[in-house]
Amino acid sequence: MLDEPYPANLPVVEACLACNQSFSLDEQYLACFWERVMCGSTDPSKLRRENIQRILSRTPKLAAEIQFTVAVDENGGKTWHPDMDRVRNVILKLARGHLHFEFSIQERDDPDVFEIAPFSVLTAESREFFERPEPEPMAVWPELGSRAFLRALPLGGQIPDGWLDVQEGRYRYLVGQGRGNYAHIVIGEYLACRVAWG
After folding, report:
1. Listed residue (57, 31, 30) closest to 43, CA to CA
2. Is the peptide bond before 160 cis (omega within 30 degrees of 0)?
3. pLDDT in the model for residue 148
4. Helix H segments across 60-156?
């Protein structure tokens, strides 16, 4: 999801080799699929991110798989149909990782809420909730000493909005524990993802 050089403060959660590698192909798929949607093209030469161009040139099977998911109407409009099982695998892994990193919480069960949509289709109300799911003062304070607790301390008299920019314009996330544990993820300022438990 990110471009090199990677951020110095990249959130990393330890995982066994088998677990970590089991998601690699799905992550590769999502990164390539999303880049093609963002550029509106299946032509690798028209993609902006060089690492995605390299991946698709080295893996023609993946390029063909993504090419097969686009439908073009009589006016030239394109509709993309991702493999939602693969997308879900990646987003769920990321959400669990962010909750573990920030709160030391391990959510192993299936989430109660799993939603993915481009920002362009969200209503103003849905967008507001997504950006600020807890508009009131924090309902549950994070564990003392956790990363989330330290981030919640007022900076210069202002309480931060909770969003963490991992790489500007590329990836950001927000986690919380208001009415249950949740993670909101934004990919490319285009795709809004919400995962919640409880």
Report:
1. 57
2. no
3. 56
4. 60-67, 84-103, 124-131, 147-152
